[in-house]
Prior knowledge:
3 domains, binds pyridoxal-5'-phosphate, three-stranded antiparallel sheet, alpha/beta, Aspartate Aminotransferase, domain 2, 10% strand
Amino acid sequence: xxxxxxxxxxxxxxxxxxxxxxxxxxxxxxxxxxxxxxxxxxxxxxxxxxxxxxxxxxxxxxxxxxxxxxxxxxxxxxxxxxxxxxxxxxxxxxxxxxxxxxxxxxxxxxxxxxxxxxxxxxxxxxxxxxxxxxxxxxxxxxxxxxxxxxxxxxxxxxxxxxxxxxxxxxxxxxxxxxxxxxxxxxxxxxxxxxxxxxxxxxxxxxxxxxxxxxxxxxxxxxxxxxxxxxxxxxxxxxxxxxxxxxxxxxxxxxxxxxxxxxxxxxxxxxxxxxxxxxxxxxxxxxxxxxxxxxxxxxxxxxxxxxxxxxxxxxxxxxxxxxxxxxxxxxxxxxxxxxxxxxxxxxxxxxxxxxxxxxxxxxxxxxxxxxxxxxxxxxxxxxxxxxxxxxxxxxxxxxxxxxxxxxxxxxxxxxxxxxxxxxxxxxxxxxxxxxxxxxxxxxxxxxxxxxxxxxxxxxxxxxxxxxxxxxxxxxxxxxxxxxxxxxxxxxxx
Length: 492
Ligand SMILES: *Cc1c(COP(=O)(O)O)cnc(C)c1O
């Protein structure tokens, strides 16, 4: 089937054509103006498409086939951990007892769901070295905010008004954003030549006004913080807490535990590490795992063991309150639970394979690109397209666009901000050596094209449904309103 030139749904429209015929409702018809008032009614009917059911179904099915997804191809999107999600997780989440449970069901009827959350809490604690978990936050960034609110409550409870949060310059943008949203002043600390947080600068910044350090480990350069224990001593030495941005947890499962490294609280991205679907706007979940001293401030309700059963606890006087309705995005937590019940004992192999795959790709690609931090990487690595830019006038954006021509999703680019022309690649553990080789071959070919035919790379993509878009114009001057075509007769 031709995939280009799918018409707009409006272009199928034939006046009077309908997809669904509603049966007689059996109640008297009431004019709209009697309900909302004539002044609120439009004078002309909305220009909605009038189409048949097959046209409707085919239109959206065709559009869906244009999507790139992890079930369609390799997705090397660094920092996002786009691994393949076992379909058995979907079966578990769709079990009617989970999928159709009403969030207000009495606890006697929700024991299985509460038990699942309780057991997931125990599993996350075992993996992270923490003591308790809240499942309410809807994503990693929301987990950051929730944790910072608990950190603030902790300090205030001790009579301390701390005003600053330290964030390294390699951090994900959500870290300073969450700190600012929570009312803190953000202090940025640079990275050192090996990509670790600069300890001398950290010592200068760490004083009694600091509430927490937000650290990512492995950090966004894909590098393990080599002095994390010493960093924790510096931070705890001034009475502040250690927050881990756990987005890169996929690299260290079963190998090392944040709780043992000195972290007091962290978020987990179940849509990254624990294999729940990712992208397209969610839902995800960003559970927060924490040490005992933060337990009193947990969002309510918490799931508690109660004899042989389980209950929700709303009676926590020091709670920061609710951060989301009910217990959070329960469906994705069922998927995470199914994943852990399947792979729990193999988690270490998961991370080892993720790290091996990343280092394999790094070794294949390093002759062709600059590598600003030349260390053994963890689950991802950051190349620089500086050479291609200065020697051939090809930007990292162009290289990413050219990858689309070879059938791959582009890697993360221009992040982290401290790497010029950054190309951030994360293969994950679920990819085979053949897939990694094919991807490396494509990227190497593009590196060669930068020398021999830079214009083709600069103007890519050429083989996709749409070619290079004017992103600035699209953002500055969006045209979101459909207008009838000026020329009659649209081909299908
Ligand atoms: C993905 C990510 C976040 C934010 O997580 P969301 O679940 O997308 O809100 C924070 N920090 C890092 C390093 C990340 O990669």
